[in-house]
Amino acid sequence: MLYKISQLTEFRNNFIEEVEQAAVGVTNSLVFKKNWLHPFPITNPSKAQVLSISGANIFSARCGDKLSQNLTDIKHTDLPMLSNSKMFLDLILEVTDGDVETLAIALAFPLEQTIRGKKMDGKLIKPTKEHLLVDLIGKEVGKEIENYFLEKLNRRLDVVVCNNSVALGFVGLALNKSGGYKQTAVGIIGSGLNFGFYEGPDLFVNLEAGNFDKFEQTHSGEVIDALSQNFNQQLFEKETSAAYLYKHFNVVLREEGFSGHVNSTKELSQILENGDKDSREYKVACKIFERSASLVATQISGLHQVMINHHNLKFEDPIQLVVEGELFWSGYKFEEMIADYLDRIYGDVDEDFNIEIKKLENMNLSGAMMMLEE
User: What is the pLDDT of the chain when averaged over all its residues?
Assistant: First the structure.
């Protein structure tokens, strides 16, 4: 099933309305979480390590002698499904180098920002992407990690934590010095889905856009949600993100009586790159990717309008959207499909929209590094 342009336009308008309502305190499927971009001062960057934790991966790197230098010793680890806080804390302990004094973590779970002294931290609001971590909800993640290192290793460590979209907030401003905060937004289009923008030069708004629910779910999405650890939550993310797209494929083929089965959205992308275009598997994979891209386009165009409203911009003013996520950059023709649907959603608008999408190498880790300052 693909959505009609009239449906996508309706979803876009619903998204705009939800953001505007959340901005004035109305409770709905989105949030309007304001986060201070508050870097933590350190004196010895060579003793600092940064982590980016998504729904499926942990990326790690070391800082150089100066924070202006390139990151080094970049590593990747698959993230297992986290069932409790001990499992999470043991994993952090495992991936943290023995000589590290400062640890900066960009975490892909919804957080309520706190400031501990000069450190950014966050209380876990809820786990997403099928992780549990119920016993970590309401606790300051950085403080819990510090206490765990002290308890297990008698080791003192400064830990700075923020949501991964907030970490990208640092990157967005660094990449758009000409346009400034009013014309900059960030997006995560990978194993999860989220967008955010700025209310000030050091104040970032996280929307938790993956939780948006004012759209029509697909049948396969309803099946996936019914089996989910977080039922009736993150509905938009379950229709659009790499953590779930391959599950749509499996549901559709199983219900049609086909034997095809994949274990990741990367495999789904490979079917589109190398598969038989006449096969049922190819056609189903193509529809799922296109449908996801069309939904993502509704939030990009909706965010564009929100920024126009909030900052009194003109429709044609250039907007820079900084995007992180393997699905967007590496998924089969995903970026192209989003661009096509943006054109179609804006089809009845006379003026040309001007949204430039930007990428920085190792953007996820760079955002974590920018949580620190000398």
Answer: 95
